[in-house]
Amino acid sequence: MSKLSGKIALISGGTSGIGAATAKLFQSEGATVVVTGSSEASAAAARADMPGVEVLVSNAADIAATQSLVEAVEARHGRIDVLFVNAGIAKMAPVERIDEAFFDSQFDVNVKGAFFLMKHALRLMPDGGAIILTASVAGAAGGLPGSTIYGATKAALRSFGRTFAKELLPRRIRVNTISPGPVVTPVLDKGGFTQAQKDAFIDGAKTRVPLGRTGTVEEVAAAALYLAADATFTTGAELFVDGGLIDL
Q1: Which among 39, 159, 161, 173 is least buried, having the fewest CB atoms inside 10 angstroms?
Q2: If you average pLDDT over every residue of the chain, what do you get?
Q3: CATH of 8-183+219-240, one of 3.40.190.10, 3.40.50.1820, 3.40.50.720, 3.30.450.40
Q4: DSSP category for residue 238
Q5: Comparing C-alpha atoms, which of 158, 155, 152 is closest to residue 175?
Q6: Quick check: helix, strand or coil at residue 117?
């Protein structure tokens, strides 16, 4: 039997990158998969790329939209067995260039959006379900220039992973966090990175990461599948998919 046979999985930020790779993997393991995208264009492209995956447009920073998303999943499927809280944005800037809009845009999507998606989705989750959050090594290790705000949002997600896990123990809903290291995804383009900056990001990984390369979205998706299906005695944990960056 497939690992997620009969399960309903909701993946926020699932139209590209890590979310899309995870959606394809979950679908291949038997899950009915619903993903969200932030625009009609991204949703249309995802529908073409992922036949059989349900794609909904939802603004992760809009709490009313998040509640409507959960209600739509309830109407179609009745429950959420696996929730992958993956929607996020990454913008880099030195402290002197950070204004309120820059600050709020990342906290609204990465932190507020994540919290309220979990809050609203919980009523649809059967006891024994699984929640996975996408954080980042930027939330665990400081020092990356320009990542002050992005790193803080991901540190908040790491905290959510532990506190939600504790609160949901009576319902046996497992809550775990994935913290990827350098992975090339469309988030870099959305964050305004130039080609030169992306090239520097990739080249820098070769010297900073003990395994000597960037990771792939498929490697992060495999970690998500492990936490969703195999890690049945694991909750409140953080899995670094970072080529040894944090620990070596």
Answers
A1: 39
A2: 94
A3: 3.40.50.720
A4: E
A5: 158
A6: helix
| DSSP class of 173 | -
Distance CA 120, CA 125 (A): 10
To the query of whether residue 226 is one of the catalytic residues in this protein, the response is no
The token duo for 20 is 């899309």
Q: How far apart are CA 196 and CA 163, in angstroms?
A: 39
Helix (H, G, I), strand (E, B) or coil at 217: helix
Predicted confidence at residue 82, as pLDDT, reads 99
Q: How far, in whole angstroms, is CA 24 from its chain's centroid?
A: 15
Query: Scanning the structure block, which residue is given the tokens 């600050």?
Result: 103
Rounded Cα–Cα distance for residues 108 and 97 (Å): 19
Distances (CA, A) of 222 to 20, 29, 70, 75, 153: 12, 11, 25, 29, 24
Distance CA 4, CA 210 (A): 33
pLDDT averages per 10-residue partition of the chain, 248 residues: 96 97 98 97 97 98 97 98 97 94 98 98 98 95 81 97 98 98 77 68 81 95 98 98 92
Q: How far is 210 from 106, CA to CA, in rounded Å? A: 29
Tokens of 197: 């900056």
Q: Where are the domains of the chain?
A: 8-183+219-240
**The pLDDT of residue 201:** 67
Question: Among 26, 84, 116, 150, which one carries the catalytic annotation?
Answer: 150
8 A C-beta contact, residue 241 and residue 133 = no
